[in-house]
Every structure is written in C-alpha cells, then in structure tokens.
C-alpha cells in the first residue's frame, strides 16, 4: 500500500527517520505496540486533536520508521481510538466494580454507584479524562463510528437503565437518548467542578448524581 510508505505530509523519506532503536526480539510485537500507544497518548495530550497528531512525531518518539506504525494500526484514526480505548476500558472497569459493590437486587443503587465512580475517575485522572473527552477527532462514516471506544461506556449505561426498567423504574424522556443524557450531564458537571474556583468537595458531585437520577427515573 502506498499509504504505508508515506507519512501524512506525503514524504517517502522513511529511511531518514530510522534511529538507533534496538529491534524487539521475535514475539515482542506487542511491546512495540504499547510503545506506540504510549507515545501517541503523550503527544495527543499536547496537541489536543487527531488532525494535529503527526505519525512522524510518534515514530520519532518511539525510535522507529513511520511505516512501522502501520504494522500495528491501519491508519491514524485506529491509533487514536486505541489510545482512547485504554482509558475507556479503565473507566468502564471502575464503574463495573463500583456497581458490583451495591446490592445486586437494587439496580438503581448500582447505577448510582456507577455514576459516582465515573465522577471519581474523572477527578482522579484529569489528564486522561481530558484526552478521552476533549480530543478533537476526525469524522468517520456511521458504520465505523459504531466501533468507537466510547460505545463501551454508553452500552454500560444503557444496560444499567434497562435493569432499572426491569425493576419497575420508568425512564423519563426518550429512552434511546437517556445514556447520552447521563453522560453529557456527568461530563458537564465534572468540567464545572474542575474549573470553578470553589473548594473541591466531591460530595457535591455525589449530590448531583442523586439529583440527576431523581430527574431521569421515576417509580
């Protein structure tokens, strides 16, 4: 593929980018992939957008030629999504663990624990959270969009709401939009909590979660 021989500015001088990096022994391709993800994540935190991310800069950071990235990621979008996926997976795991700590027969309380865990994750990992929610990403077609790592979060919220419905709770408003409403509300509240010059009391976030659930669900 011609794309694999050129970086995003169209130059073919990959050999000029080669550095003294020692090649990973056979079977350690996963290590190189992790190195690429780590470098891309660090650069994304600096530039803030997929368009501004240079694959040449990623390769230089790792110490490889630019075409070597394409052995692990088909294009820059796949690389960026892979970086984001690591953090969405950690967030989803934190929320799942928090939900499991609530009574199994109380889906509303489990959802409450999950939403509070979302807020705690955002507060404890501000740089990673900004990367997840504030990185400008290149638009893709609808079919590819279904594979975005944020889907993990939205599916988890939708499943939690379904369990509430099965227990007799009714979701106010349009059901298909409810997971997005939860996410947008949480993100907006966390963003204000982080930037406003008030004393940082996470109990305010807990109270917001309670208010949010009271507005969205009725028995």
TrEMBL record:
InterPro entries: Homeodomain-like_sf, HTH-type_TetR-like_transc_reg, HTH_TetR, MT1864/Rv1816-like_C, Tet_transcr_reg_TetR-rel_C_sf. Coiled coil: none annotated. Keywords: DNA-binding, Transcription, Transcription regulation. It comes from the Bacteria. PROSITE patterns: HTH_TETR_2. Residues 30-91 form the HTH tetR-type domain. SUPFAM superfamilies: Homeodomain-like, Tetracyclin repressor-like, C-terminal domain. The keyword Secreted does not apply. Residues 1-29 are annotated as: Disordered. It holds the Pfam family TetR_C_33. Residues 54-73 bind DNA. PANTHER family: HTH-TYPE TRANSCRIPTIONAL REGULATOR BETI, HTH-TYPE TRANSCRIPTIONAL REGULATOR RUTR. This is TetR/AcrR family transcriptional regulator.
């Amino acid at each position: 593929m011609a794309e694999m021989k050129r970086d995003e500015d169209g130059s073919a001088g990959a050999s000029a980018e080669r550095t003294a990096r020692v090649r990973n022994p056979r079977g350690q391709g996963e290590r190189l992939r992790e190195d690429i993800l780590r470098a891309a994540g660090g650069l994304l935190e600096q530039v803030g957008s997929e368009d501004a991310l240079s694959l040449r800069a990623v390769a230089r950071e790792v110490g490889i030629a630019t075409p070597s990235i394409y052995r692990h990621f088909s294009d820059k979008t796949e690389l960026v999504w892979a970086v984001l996926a690591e953090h969405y997976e950690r967030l989803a795991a934190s929320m799942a663990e928090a939900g499991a700590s609530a009574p199994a027969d109380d889906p509303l309380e489990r959802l409450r624990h999950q939403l509070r865990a979302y807020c705690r994750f955002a507060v404890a990992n501000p740089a990673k959270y900004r990367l997840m929610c504030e990185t400008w990403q290149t638009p893709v077609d609808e079919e590819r969009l279904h594979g975005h790592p944020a889907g993990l979060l939205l599916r988890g919220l939708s499943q939690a709401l379904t369990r509430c419905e099965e227990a007799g709770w009714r979701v106010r408003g349009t059901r298909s939009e409810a997971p997005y409403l939860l996410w947008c509300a949480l993100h907006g509240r966390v963003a204000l909590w982080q930037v406003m010059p008030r004393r940082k009391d996470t109990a305010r976030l807990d109270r917001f979660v309670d208010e949010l659930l009271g507005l969205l669900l009725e028995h």
